[in-house]
């Protein structure tokens, strides 16, 4: 039976164009983008922020996160920024971003205090955990992982994005929601490239934008859906949101920006479209759940040991370094740390089986002290991205009680699944943009932060580098005038973006089919083991897609057009990865990179960054030493005396900047403009959302905030939105969180609902 068709509820502005000019342009509205915009606006510059979704809940941490790593300057910390930043570099065998990690360690706590001043919650102000071992009674800060050194702070991350948006509006930032950035504008001045802004499209109306700016900050996501794709439940394919697929990388590659470590990919860890359970949604003892008590099928407790193999007798001991160890590293990019940084962990899975422990395993919080149990199931699981609603709320409604039940574990670690070697992801400090100490790319006027950087990390990393890049971009913008751009480049981009609207409907191809083909090609030609012949065959196949298939792509409305543009970017990123893999002529353990034709592992002469960019359609490489960033503290302080002085003189960051605020209006309701498009719900095997029609008032807050744009307002006034694209749901819970009437229920597909049983002793 054919689905009901609806008129597109937004104006048809296909072909229309608008130019927006500002001093600083920020591309991406996640944590790093928001902080980049705030840094520039605080310095009195005009700022435009472009976000494909809705900034209030967009990005990997749009609906929350539970802990802030590397806050080395907080008043309780027992470590220095130098110690932790250097540990990250050493831990990753120098295939690490020393510059960005030092910025994270040196400035991360400053950004956390900023967030508190904006209205975010970073302390136990309600005294829920008074007396807990992880709580500092004077500051009310609460710590995770290492209770001795106290440099990872538990936070209420669900409060952060709304607070950031409120602050940006107060500062007069021009927030362009529902607008995808698609290409960089690059000018030529004295034979040298310089950033001139960017181009993009409104994903509701199709209007084309030219964003002119003196400086540009790239703060978009790392790539996704390169190896993993499911046409039915696309929103569950990856760890990150549906719209976060690496468009910034694709834009950068096309413009000639340099990248490094793009040959690095890891065996996949999360893809809840079938292979795994949702992140943090099954019993485990990692990251958000550290250090949960684990038991086997009989209820026999699984022992924790320190780095020396000493069995730990109490829960408390799991949170302290071993004898003679200064500190340990957990979370973020740390999976299997070196001996020097290894923290307490459960006995290795293979050893447990040898000892007779029986599957399945479970997380049993009932055996933990009350505060430890409540902070995991309540605060941590309640605040982590994608867990507040679909995990914490739903499991509670299903009857899960952490004092009475054990939650089943489905893997040998926090991944909750076993993936094939060819099923890969950009996880654990992947490749990205190469930059200098200003976080500037090789193109003047273009900066990068957060997940755009190579070897990126988590929330604190994103916020600290975003603010840093924003202030460096501001300093540059104050020294230059707007650059001219080539009008022909804008015309070519406009033509490229709209082409699928005019392709042959009868013989055309949809975006999902091409995404499936790219993913299968990457599994076949760029899987766990690589060689030159495979990589070249893969590159040839992808280039044939670009030549023969891209002209056949079709789209029926601006939403489909956006998804098509994403797959074009995935195709670009896939080719970038293959070029990077061809450039490295040896295997490397730190890069999780194996070549059958160059099996030697990490030869001394190849321990270096291979930096790659595109020039006139050809991949060009250069070599950079792994220690190119120099002595971290010295190089940082050489370039940031203004910031050091500013922070020392003004400890109260909440009152430091007072600006006349241009407060923007809330997202407007769709008008009565008749669009030329008709749209019908796209079938999906699952139904993520259910509305209670007796409660819903048709306010459309859920549609306005949905970062994956799966909802369109109902044509009937007062009715709930139409679930137009259920398979694209990311299950973040933003819609439920903003509903004023508790009229929405969000639930994972049946296959992703982990089992829990009564505790066994």
Radius of gyration: 25 Å
> How would the global form be characterised?
globular
Number of DSSP strand runs? 30
Strand content: 15-25%
Write the SSE topology.
Elements: E1 6-7, E2 17-27, H1 31-42, E3 47-50, E4 67-68, H2 81-91, H3 98-118, E5 142-143, E6 153-154, H4 160-170, E7 174-176, E8 179-189, E9 192-202, E10 208-218, H5 247-255, E11 259-260, E12 266-267, E13 294-295, E14 304-305, E15 345-346, H6 349-355, E16 361-363, H7 370-383, H8 388-397, E17 405-409, E18 424-425, E19 432-433, E20 446-448, H9 459-477, H10 487-498, H11 511-525, E21 529-530, H12 532-549, H13 558-583, E22 594-595, E23 609-615, E24 618-624, H14 632-639, H15 641-649, E25 678-679, E26 689-691, H16 701-705, E27 711-712, E28 722-723, H17 734-738, E29 744-746, E30 756-758
Parallel strand pairs: 2-3, 2-10, 3-7, 10-20, 21-22
Antiparallel strand pairs: 1-25, 4-6, 5-6, 8-9, 9-10, 11-19, 11-23, 12-18, 13-16, 14-15, 16-17, 17-30, 23-24, 26-29, 27-28
Helix pairs in contact: 1-4, 1-9, 2-3, 3-9, 5-13, 7-8, 11-12, 11-13, 12-13
Keywords:
alpha+beta; globular; seven-stranded mixed β-sheet; four-stranded antiparallel β-sheet; about 750 residues
Describe this structure in words.
- This protein has 761 residues and is of the alpha+beta class.
- Helices cover 28% and strands 15% of the residues.
- Strands 2, 3, 7, 8, 9, 10 and 20 form a 7-stranded mixed β-sheet that branches.
- β8 and β9 form a beta hairpin.
- α2 crosses α3.
- The protein is globular.
- It starts with 5 loop residues before the first strand and ends with a strand.
- About 3% of the residues have low confidence.
């Amino acid at each position: 039976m054919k689905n009901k068709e609806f008129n597109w509820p937004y104006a048809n502005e296909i072909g229309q164009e608008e130019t927006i000019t500002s001093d600083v342009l920020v591309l991406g509205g996640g944590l790093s983008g928001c902080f980049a915009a705030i840094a520039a606006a605080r310095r009195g510059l005009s700022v435009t922020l472009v976000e494909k979704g809705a900034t209030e809940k967009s990005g990997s941490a749009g609906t929350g996160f539970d802990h802030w790593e590397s806050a080395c300057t907080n008043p309780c910390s027992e470590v220095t920024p130098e110690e932790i930043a250097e540990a990250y570099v050493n831990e990753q065998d120098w295939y690490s971003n020393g510059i960005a990690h030092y910025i994270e360690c040196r400035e991360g706590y400053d950004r956390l205090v900023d967030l508190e001043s904006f209205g975010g919650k970073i302390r136990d102000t309600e005294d829920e955990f008074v007396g807990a071992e992880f709580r500092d009674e004077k500051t009310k800060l609460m710590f995770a992982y290492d209770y001795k050194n106290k440099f990872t702070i538990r936070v209420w991350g669900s409060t952060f994005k709304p607070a950031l948006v409120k602050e940006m509006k107060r500062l007069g930032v021009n927030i362009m929601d529902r607008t995808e950035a698609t290409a960089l504008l690059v000018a030529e001045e004295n034979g040298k490239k310089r950033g001139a802004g960017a181009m993009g499209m409104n994903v509701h109306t199709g209007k084309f934008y030219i964003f002119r700016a003196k400086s540009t900050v790239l703060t978009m996501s790392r790539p996704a859906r390169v190896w993993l794709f499911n046409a039915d439940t696309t929103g569950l394919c990856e760890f990150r949101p549906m719209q976060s697929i690496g468009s910034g990388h694709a834009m950068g590659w096309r413009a000639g920006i340099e990248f490094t470590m793009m040959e690095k990919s890891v065996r996949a860890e999360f893809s809840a479209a079938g292979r795994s359970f949702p992140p943090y949604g099954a019993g485990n003892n990692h990251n958000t759940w550290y250090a949960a008590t684990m038991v086997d099928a009989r209820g026999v407790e699984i022992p924790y040991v320190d780095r020396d193999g000493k069995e730990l007798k109490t829960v408390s001991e799991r949170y302290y370094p071993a004898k003679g160890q200064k500190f340990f590293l957990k979370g973020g990019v740390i999976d299997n740390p070196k001996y020097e940084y290894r923290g307490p962990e459960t006995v290795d899975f293979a050893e447990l089986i040898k000892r007779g422990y029986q599957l399945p395993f479970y997380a049993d919080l009932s055996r933990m002290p009350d505060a430890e149990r409540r902070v995991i199931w309540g605060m941590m699981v309640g605040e982590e991205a994608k867990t507040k609603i679909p995990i914490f709320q739903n499991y509670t409604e299903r009857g899960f009680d952490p004092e009475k039940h054990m939650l089943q574990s489905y893997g040998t670690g926090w991944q909750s699944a076993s993936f094939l070697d060819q099923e890969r992801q950009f996880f654990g400090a992947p490749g990205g943009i190469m930059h200098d100490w200003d976080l500037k790319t090789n193109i003047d006027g273009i900066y990068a932060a957060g997940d755009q950087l190579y070897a990126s990390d988590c929330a604190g990393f994103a916020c600290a580098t975003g603010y840093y890049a924003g202030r460096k971009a501001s300093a540059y913008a104050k020294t230059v005038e707007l650059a001219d751009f080539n009008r022909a480049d804008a015309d070519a981009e406009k033509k490229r973006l709209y082409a699928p609207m005019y392709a042959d409907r009868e013989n055309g191809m949809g975006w999902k089919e091409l995404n499936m083909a790219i993913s299968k090609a990457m599994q076949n030609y760029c899987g766990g083991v690589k060689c030159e012949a495979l990589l070249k065959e893969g590159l040839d196949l992808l280039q044939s897609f670009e030549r023969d298939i891209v002209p056949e792509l079709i789209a029926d409305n601006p939403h489909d057009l956006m998804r098509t543009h994403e797959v074009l970017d995935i195709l670009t990123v896939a080719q970038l990865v293959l070029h990077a893999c061809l450039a490295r002529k040896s295997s490397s353990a730190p890069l999780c990179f194996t070549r059958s034709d160059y099996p030697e592992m990490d030869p001394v002469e190849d321990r270096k960054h291979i930096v790659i960019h595109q020039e006139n359609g050809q991949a060009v490489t250069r070599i950079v030493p792994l220690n190119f960033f120099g002595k971290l503290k010295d190089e940082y302080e050489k370039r940031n005396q203004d910031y050091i002085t500013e922070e020392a003189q003004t400890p109260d960051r909440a009152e430091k900047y007072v600006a006349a605020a241009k407060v923007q209006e809330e997202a407007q309701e769709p008008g009565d403009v008749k669009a030329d498009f008709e749209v019908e719900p796209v079938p999906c095997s699952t139904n993520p959302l259910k509305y209670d029609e007796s409660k819903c008032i048709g306010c459309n807050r859920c549609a306005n905030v949905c970062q994956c744009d799966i909802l369109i307002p109902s044509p009937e006034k007062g009715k709930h939105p139409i679930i137009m694209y259920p398979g694209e749901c990311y299950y973040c819970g933003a819609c439920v969180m903003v509903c004023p009437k508790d009229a929405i229920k969000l639930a994972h597909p049946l296959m992703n609902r982990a089992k829990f049983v009564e505790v066994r002793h």
